[in-house]
Amino acid sequence: MKNKLKDSKSDLIVKEVIEAIQQKKGKQIVSLNLNKLDQSICDYFVICHAGSTTQVDAIVFGIEDHLKKTLEVRALSIEGSQNSQWVLIDYADVVVHVFLDEFRGFYNLENLWADAELQRYADL
Fold this sequence. Notes:
40% helix, single chain
């Protein structure tokens, strides 16, 4: 059985990540709840995309900055920022994927984890 405190912390991180993405105008934001899947590597994936590498970078920086300020949480690692086509931000139980538009469709993570509970969020 998963720890309720850990789950609520993961939920809070997801909420703040979504808010940070919306502030930077990320597109088609979704979260995948992986808690009930046996082979899951974390509790949640949060996925969005942007129309340019500049916007990908802005979203990634916005997420990092927002979580440091609001929750005093720092990413364990950030991968892919060299080319800004697919940047992964690892917060242990929450992994954020920020794609350049055409790469999101190519990798199609939502379908790879089709058994996960999917939540869509409004673009602002």
